[in-house]
Amino acid sequence: MIYQRWLPLATLLLILGALYWGEITSQRWKTAQWITVSSGFFYLAVVIWLTFYPTGLPFCLGLDKPLFHFMTVSYNLHPLAYVDAEFFANILLTVPLGVYLYLAKSRLNLLSLFLISIIPGLMIESCQLVADLAVNLNRVVDIDDVISNTCGVLVGYLVVKLFDHTPLTHLVKPFALQRNN
Q: Which of 144, 147, 150 lies closest to 65 in space, CA to CA?
């Protein structure tokens, strides 16, 4: 049944909506912090849409990666062998996540930052694998996506960290979610 293919997307969006409702009702945010939380949840909804849309979105036509197949799942496990425009689009996709990470937790050591940064790419690709096995989303599970998503989170975090250590820090501080900032 074709409607089953929409289940992962609908389920993830419902979970995100419940988390958002719980977050906005459990905290008393200042206006700038409320903007951070609300825009962050909207951003996550867009990422979920882009990564779990059932038919796949062909942003970069002419994909020449030789893919392997496991049952109904197409996958690529050759890291950085086929870097293309999609690789850089995936970096841009997760730069805002790095910004939100900095606003939520500005004091991370390099190892913690790297370990946290790798999680979104691993989660997206793992969930795509499971969803593709369950309902055939026609998505490609790609190690390059994990790498590019990690790079995007790192870039976003480090850019805001650098910006926060300039005379313009007063533009960053109100949006931080930490109480001690």
A: 144
Per DSSP, the residues of 31-70 read HHHHHHHHHHHHHHHHHHHHHH-TT---SS----PPPEEE
How far, CA to CA in Å, does 132 sit from each of 49, 59, 77, 153? 15, 19, 17, 25
Gyration radius of the chain over CA positions: 18
CA-to-CA dists, residue 86 to 4, 25, 61, 117, angstroms: 27, 38, 9, 19
| Res 57: pLDDT | 46
Convert the pLDDT of each residue in 70-129 to its tens digit. Answer: 888 888 898 998 888 889 999 999 999 999 999 999 999 999 999 999 999 999 999 999
Cα angle, residue 152 at apex, residues 151 and 155 outer, rounded to 5°: 85
